[in-house]
Amino acid sequence: MDASVLIKTIVWWGFGLGVVFGFVGNKTNFCTMGAVSDVVNMGHWGRMRAWILAMAVAMVGTNLLAYLGYVDMTKNIYTGNNFPWLAYIVGGLCFGVGMTLASGCANRTLVRIGGGNLRSVVVFIFLGFAAMTTLRGILGAFRVNVLQAPAVTVQFEHGQTLPSLLSGMGGLSQGALQLSVACGLALAMLVFVFKDGSFRKSLDNNLAGLAIGLIVVGGWYVTGHLGYGENPDTLEMTFLGTNSHLAESMSFVAPTAYTLEYWAYWTDASNIITFGVATLFGVAIGSFLYAMINKSFRWEAFSSVQDMIYHIIGAILMGFGGVTAMGCTIGQGITGLSTLSLGSLLALASIITGSVITMKIQYKILMRED
């Protein structure tokens, strides 16, 4: 297949996956910040279990693809030899604080835009600008020279995934070991998820976990298998239609920056829509479609100047943190974890920690005001 046709195919698949993600996300109220808030403030684990179910489904599906030879899981941003632990921690903490101040993470921002939330439009713009300056701007210098400096980066000889650290155990091949570890971890997650009777009866939470987990698997298949082709300029095999030129799946921070860049350099013929950018449009449109069908679309604005300031600060922290930690609650929390990356686990733990601390502080402030 011609490279230009293949890129268009990958982009349209990304858009389609995004539409389903946005539709399901809006219908089921899937929100990772909301899941953390439910647990911390009310002791409700329904949406958290949905998130964990998505992780388990993505983990098994992704590693099954790798075992069957459809995707090379060494060729993505999560499983490399470099382990910049300080970047994962600082980026994750910043993202966790930011998503709490902004009332939702990057994917929830897109879902809310589709539902008519004007606050989320502001969050999207500031998040994207912060992500852009962290990727290649002034904040990028700090990220690379300080948070990803050699002194705070561990080098793994065979990659930073859990199976790579267990390589050779049990006499299994690397592929079999990776699938075995994934299935073992996923089984433990599923036991925790489905032992709760109320969760088993919740159609929305089950739908959210299953659908979003499968969407992540679909993203890996589309970019890592269908998108693997010959670069017409170098005649080398590469991953077409992605910004990283590697296999990708659902992630929403860096693609926000690429979206703003695409709009800013619209007339530049070399600037094309990629899989990541297409997923963003898809999520917003999918959410919009559900809002119109369900008649829940309504315009929402900031309630006060203070509310706007908190959302802007949160958006900036998310943009910086998401790029620094190499992913968001979806990008690291589901997509990254599906590769069994230790960096994804550390980033996710930092995101949750940052969010929990911020919620505790907000609660204390609220109690003092009352």
Structure, explained:
This protein is mainly α and 370 residues long. It has one domain (3-369). It is built from 16 helices and 4 strands. Strands 1-2 form a two-stranded antiparallel sheet. The chain has a two-stranded antiparallel sheet with strand order 3-4. A hairpin with a 6-residue loop joins β3 (228-230) and β4.
What are the key terms here?
370 residues; mainly alpha; two-stranded antiparallel ribbon; 4 strands; 3% strand; globular
Oligomer: single chain
Global geometry: globular
Number of helices: 16
Strand content: under 5%
Rg over alpha carbons: 20 Å
Q: What is the H/E order?
A: HHHEHHHHEHHHHEEHHHHH
Strands of the widest sheet, in order across it, are: 1-2
Percentage of helical residues? 55-70%
Spatial gap, N to C terminus = 65 Å
Number of domains: 1
The biggest sheet amounts to: 2 strands, antiparallel
Structure summarized in a few sentences:
Helices cover 68% and strands 3% of the residues. By secondary structure, the protein is mainly alpha-helical.
